[in-house]
Amino acid sequence: MILSAEVECMIYDAQSLKEKRSVIKRIQTRLSNQYNVAVSELDFQDLWQRTCIGIVTVASSKVICEQTIQQALALIDSFPEIERTNTVIEWL
Fold this sequence. Notes:
InterPro entries: DUF503, TT1725-like_sf. The protein is α+β, with helices and mostly antiparallel strands.
């Protein structure tokens, strides 16, 4: 089973692309290390305070995929400098 999540977020305190990328890099590293998921910035690379992050997981059962994605989303929500605005979850 393959499950993906497309997460749009706002980074209100970012005043430059460098600050934005440092926040995104920390999130990507933590997600990859803790949950063994693939993570990438999908859209809004040239905007300071907006991003779209893609997360993908592969597992043998739907339940494990869903748990992993929900844990990853909870981790994103735990960062105070980023706010999740829209999330689309899709089975592939």
